[in-house]
Amino acid sequence: MARQLHDFDALHDFDALYAGDVPPPWEIGRPQPVLLALVRRSVLADPVLDAGCGTGALALAVARAGHRVVGVDAAAHAISRARERAAESIVEPPGEVRFEVADARRLDRLDLRPRTVLDSGLLHSLDDAGREAYVAGLEAICPPDALVAVLAMSMDAGLGWGTTDDGLRAAFAGPAWTGTTVSDAEIAARTAGEDLRLAALLLTTRRA
Ligand SMILES: C[S@@+](CC[C@H](N)C(=O)[O-])C[C@H]1O[C@@H](n2cnc3c(N)ncnc32)[C@H](O)[C@@H]1O
To answer: What's this model's pTM, rounded to 2 decimal places?
Structure first.
């Protein structure tokens, strides 16, 4: 990844990236393998929120697995592509998917009480204030026992930015969250035709 993701923290930058001719490096045409594995091995409770869903690959995979899922992203071009993908995809009931343009820092504006939240690279894209607002929003909308899973770039990826075990845990510290685990993971990316696997962290936690 030539540029740091924090270079893209202005929402219009993300939108411009999705509108451009060259797909952004995280746009690999399929869900991040570590989150797909979580979907396959867990019984996810519905409804599912895919926060910062991009063009919808993960949300669609979750819907195809029979879940009711809402994908939200601040980038209108990403949501537009996600809706096109949904229209082209076969999602058999009880699976169901819809996509909304929304700012993850204002989740309280969503009329949703997700019992599962999947985050594939959103939290690590937010600045400190954005992360705080995002986690506060999760705290507000998640009912007790809701599962939150966050896949975030690790500092160990060697990009000069990223999250740490302590940093991720700190974001979900406090009485609202319980059973927090952080494990080593990978983020798949593609840049200039090259497939990369970057060191990442997977946090899971539950709303107390
Ligand atoms: C690294 S990309 C990951 C996209 C997707 N989850 C994936 O795995 O392909 C981060 C995503 O977060 C979105 N994003 C950044 N800030 C956001 C915000 N405040 N609210 C909602 N989405 C945001 C970006 O538009 C982008 O789609």
So the answer is: 0.95
Domain locations along the chain: 5-207
Q: Is the CB of 53 under 6 A from ligand 1?
A: yes
Residue 7 has pLDDT above 50, yes or no: no
What tens digit of pLDDT does each residue of 55-98 get? Answer: 999 999 999 999 999 999 999 999 999 999 999 999 999 999 99
d(CA 47, CA 53): 15
Residues 100 and 206: their CA atoms lie apart, in Å, by: 24
| Residue pair 82/100 in contact by the 8 Å Cβ criterion | no
Q: Tokens 């490096």 belong to which residue? A: 25
| Ligand 1 pocket member 120 (CB < 6 A) | yes
Closest by CA to 40, choosing from 59, 19, 25, 61, is 61
- Find out whether the beta carbon of 125 lies less than 6 Å from any atom of ligand 1: yes
CB contact at 8 A, 113 and 47:
yes
Domain 5-207 coded CATH 3.40.50.2000: no
